[in-house]
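Holo model, oxa(dethia)-CoA. Inputs:
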Amino acid sequence: MKIQLTPPVAGARILGLGSMQPDTVITNHDLEKRVETNDAWIQSRVGIIERRFGSAEDSVVSMGVDAGSKALADAGVSPTDLDAVIVATCTMSKPIPNAAAQTADRIGVNGIGAFDVNTACAGFCYGVGMAGDMIRSGTARHVLVIGSEKLSDWLDMDDRSTCIIFADGAGAAVIGPATTEDEVGVGPVVWGAAGDLVSTIHIDETDALRQEGQAVFRWATTKIAPVALRAVEAAGLTPADIDVLVPHQANLRIVEAIAKRLRQAGARDDLRVADDIQYSGNTSSASIPMAIDHMRGAGRARSGDVALLIGFGAGLSYAGQVVVLP
Ligand code: UT7
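Output:
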């Protein structure tokens, strides 16, 4: 007896992108009325000018459906051509049911693989890694990867160390097959976890998100750039080949520290670095696809650009890969 497998393809590539942000804008001045903080501190220490919070009608699923549908339209792929939906999220209101099955149904497709990934702010890059390998091995031809978060549901609005940082939104990518080696647009994922640091970001007994900001800041500014460089090496490239750097939008100072380390390792001065946190806040697994989509909209990222993605957050978890933008 011989078990038959679907023939593998050369690799995977991103076919389309989409994102959504809820309507309600929360400025730093709005937060000044709630906690002892100020616009100057938030802008200089975190880099956020404003962020969006969802309404009662916005959910992880509804925001994911919106971003996912836009990504499908951008890719020119019909929902019925999908073989799987992966939703990266850590903010579902309940552990069951998951987000992905409902999201697939509301996008217009049933009977396909649908599952959630919870690696917090690293989730989108974990999802892209899995989707890329599923496609390369022939398990799937088209996979929709969504990062969707409603962090406002999990915030203590009297805790100034978290309520000023986190926000809501969703971003998505459609990933499909690359039939030739020249078409391959998703590099190998480099991922990992530091479970020994688990307590530094957690949900407490009151269901509020807490973090030891300084400890996470130290970890992110020292451990993440080397992971990003490993992802570049795994793709057979050098830092000078990267056009666009899209780190998880945790804190603009962390983003700048990662960019500095990459330039020291040979990245170009004209490397375009995502700074989407300024107007989106920290949206966990949504931040990377949302940042790319906004950079594309602003003309700062173009089709064919080589982008380095690097996610990191609770777990602690991290993952990154090089992709070619659609
Ligand atoms: O996305 C998941 C991964 N998460 C991260 O990567 C987050 C990493 N950590 C951070 O981004 C930063 O640590 C924070 C933004 C959370 C905090 O910034 P910080 O520069 O590390 O501030 P700090 O905790 O060291 O506090 C510095 C000062 C303190 O005052 P004193 O003791 O020096 O007088 C704080 O009490 O700033 C004060 N402070 C604030 N002041 C105004 C802390 N939070 C605030 C605030 N507004 N919201």
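The first strand starts at residue 11 and ends at 20. The chain has a mean pLDDT of 97.
Archived with the compound record.
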